[in-house]
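Q: Flagellar L-ring protein, please. Structure only.
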Amino acid sequence: MRTALYCGLLTLLATAGCATAPSVAPPPVDDVPPVAMAPKPKGSAGGVFVGGSSWSMTADGRAFQPGDVLTVILQETTQASKKADTSIGKDSGVSIKAPVLAGKTLKADVGVDATREFSGSASSTQQNTLQGAITVVVHEVLPNGLLRVNGQKVLSLNQGEEFIRLSGYVRSTDVDNDNRVSSQRIANARITYAGQGALADANNAGWLTRLFFSPVMPF
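A: Structure for Flagellar L-ring protein:
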């Protein structure tokens, strides 16, 4: 009876080790609508400058007000590499000559030798690349002219969903004539790219496998 119980527990653990933890979708982006702007005053006396309009002397379609949209070109590439080698060695020896007693040499040679060595090596390499584009909304214009942007893109595929979410601060001078800005020009950028579904679950290790690779394992 106990043997059958133990076999059942082992089978349950092995099956659970293959199960994957359900993928959790990233938290949604703040969908609070941008602050509404007052109607722009019309020019007077035939002037070409209109107060409250874009900061360029010529009219364009770039984002400058809450509620405007701009396209962020994702150009994220990071690469890190680290390597360390350590080698330590030390040799020591002690010898005692044969003692002499009453003019006679005793056969009692004593010697001690010690050797200590240590060698260690470690290396780590990591590389990440993210390319694409996402259109975000201007939620706020700070007093110094920075644009606080926030946006998301959700792709529903046949085997799951893909999420791209971005938030940060953009200088209006970094927005080009096509109303685009590089992700490398965004301050305090928070970029999230994740997914959920069958394909994402297949790439997650089971909880028992993660336990074996966790720091609490002594082996």
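A: Brief note, in case it's useful. The chain has a mean pLDDT of 75.
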